[in-house]
Protein 1
Amino acid sequence: MSPEDTLRFGYRSLTGYPTRTLLMLLAMSIGVTAVVLLTSLGEGARQYVLDRFSALGSNMVIVLPGRSETTGGAPPMVGATARDLTLGDALALYRSSAVRNVAPLIVGTANIAYGGLRREVMILGTTAEMQPVRELEMAQGRFLPAGEAERASNVVVLGARVRRELFGNASALGEWVRIEDRRYRVIGILTDKGESLGADIGDSVFIPVASAQQLFDTEGLFRILVEARARESIPRAVAAAREIIRERHDGKDDVTVITQDAVLATFDRILTALTLAVGGIAAISLGVAGVLIMNVMLVAVSQRTTEIGLLKAVGASGGQILRLFLTEAAMLSLLGAALGIVLAYIGIGILGQMFPNFPLSPPNWALGAAVGISLVTGLVFGVMPARRAARLDPVQALARR
């Protein structure tokens, strides 16, 4: 029996029992749809988080006060050295040739008021270098003025949402707003950049770092954002930050320095593992579909006993009967996988319409894995009914015993 005859026999068997074929295709397609759709959601979540974190800037090194360490003997105790980062620490980082920009940062919340309107916002105290470090774009006016970081001035840059809610359609540039008990002149409006790892830039306002120190009565910085001159300069910038801060803190290594690439790599590993996990869970449904194929094909062998006996009577061997049933199982698996991929893309399209800002696309490996697993599942669970059909005695089969 030629391969063409085998395929033709399988096609006629599938079309000869449409209800049975439809049920098996449905079971297999549901499993493939689940695998492709869930891995698309996992991949979309991974890409969404990476895009958001990449939007923080490029070639960034972050210096945080404090360094967690394990100290003492048995039993171990978790301790932490905490010494504030100062504005002097931040400015000292310019001694390194690997550093392009340094943006000290103080974060707090306060009430901002204009006219009869008042709302609580996030106050970010920083310098002019924050604009290139965070790649902030201005909608109107200008960002914080360059100059001496230690000098306070009563100027403020508003996020887009803050401007919209306080001023409506009126112009905000040049107007005076009140933050707590201090007055600030609006010199710029930021574009609506959206949220960045939970911090909504549009719902924030920027003031000079020295003004923020006075407003919140603190000398300590929340963190220091450092922009390296190039991607290749990041290791030197990290080493310089540790060394310079250590010198200024009496030889104590009491800061934590992290790089943007390290954080991105960590997120990438975690979310890739999550995507594989949900894909694996969804693949279980393909196993269930395989069990259904096995059961239905066992019933089919019983129903087609006469047909099998006739094939053997005209000379078909047991191996040929085995190949006929395995081919039928493979065709069912591949057709079910194709139907499942179509359904998955329809679901992705619907979700894309509902959540346009969420990137949804299956990873490259998911489609191949879904088709491969469905094919293997169909063949594995098709072996038992195929072997039963191959072992039938032709005389008893023709007598339907």
Note: Residues 73-81 have pLDDT under 50 and may be disordered.
Protein 2
Amino acid sequence: MKRLSAKAVRNIEGSLFIAPWVVGFFVFMAFPIFYSLYMSFHRVQVLATGIEANFVGFDLYKSILFENGSVLYNDLIPFLSEAVIMLPIIIIFSLLIAIILNQRFPGRLAFRMIFFLPVIFTTGRVILEFIAQGEGGLDFLSRYNVNSFIATRLPELWANAIITVLESFILILWYSGVQILLFLAGRQTIPSSIYEASRIDGANPWETFWKITLPGMIPFIFLNLIYTVVDLFTFPTNPIIAKVNSSNYGLSSALAWIYFMIILAFLGVTLLVFHRITRSYRVVNS
């Protein structure tokens, strides 16, 4: 019997190690994804004799996009408005906290744990329960009647979006733990020798931030933007995801694919705006 070469043995071993992941991917990821695409073109009924699927083409997509606005637009437009407000809040808050946590001060490790712990504890159900109880808001809003002030001075769509964000402001910041961690890792990639050189040249902290820290963090801002957009669109309070259920498999599948395309479009617009801003910033500082 011919013995296998060392290279062939290594290939077999590697294939065996990766086989569980490949099987799991096709069974639990690829198959459900493509089956949902298949169902989105069919009216699906679950009968006692099995699943009956009748081909309807793009009818379900047309119904969601052009005929029944309550399925998508009534919830999507307010949510997109809230996402536009939450995105810069989370990114800026995370960046500032990461810069602070990178400083040397007593209890730094404890503060890092405090800011990351909500990511571990706040599962979707916990967040929903907090929101249902009215927790996570800012008390001074009702004390100083800020909501009425916003409602009387802004268009209804944006006023409602801002009020909704403010009423769960603390909970939104709780979701900044991963972004803080990424920014903290990114901040530590900037050599301390650059900061020492800037201090020797007489740069103050404000100039150091704009000339050294912020340019060095741009790749991590880019990374956090992608992460935060995806995270926001899978937020526990997301009203679109709540409509993707098992009551109507065909319609839910079509809605899920439309929503997926909207996420890609929103992500593309966000990255385009980010690219324009960073290009202008580089031109100004060059």
Note: Residues 3 and 243 are 58 Å apart (CA to CA).
Protein 3
Amino acid sequence: MPSTINNTGANTSSDAGGSCSSCACGKGQGILQGLWPRRVIQAVSFYFLAEFSYYGIFRCPFAVPYVSCANCPVVQCPGRKLWLVVLSGILVSGLLFGRAFCGYACPVGTLSDIFSQVALVKRRMAPMVKRVLHMGKYLAAAGAVYVFFAMHNPRWAVPIRTGEFVNSTMLTFEHANLFWLVRTGVVSAAILLGLLIPYFFCRFLCPTGGVLEVLRRFSLFGYSMNSACVDCGKCDRHCKLDTRPGESNCTNCGSCVDTCPVDAIAITRGLKPKN
């Protein structure tokens, strides 16, 4: 049986009667919750990873960025030193905490978080529309895997080894083929679309998010709802990713915990079927 972690760090059943009677926790103070700790982690991660993320989108000559850094001639890219650590960290975090990397450490996730504060469309999407759009990140992940393994991750742009920041970026655009321009244009547009629809890229198009979404289903830790849930929808309406604890696109940020009127949201530890 899965167990939860209360605010003292002790384990307790999450299904016994569906209440938090045995866990003063209920509000889930635990390893993943807390606004300011999350903000600190986001700021630190952004400091170390934002430049790598920028190079991946706007300077990487390969079809699939971030994965062929060992062979990349762009000597200015910090990814030449960071890529193996970052990819290993993403994999381990996915197995442990599902999509927590998206909500805590990804620079694009942090940027989308900022955009969501001013996003213009506040209405929830229709369930059918969401189900269709959700497929985008899985298709993007499958496409990336195919290009990397079956096509050996070809170069779609001439690598600009070094140079001034803006000029090097402009030169990469000038010496890229149509596929690279389309890829970069779609990614950039999807990120900017977050100013209209919160987290559009993260929710519907990010290939890394698609991979982590699969790992989330088998992750060891993560927020979920116990049997006390009355399906009031408050957590859903509070979440800017338009989801609920333990469901698709949940990044385990924990911001919804305090909205639950029956303390049904808590951190689950151990294997448990996830939606």
Note: The mean pLDDT is 86.
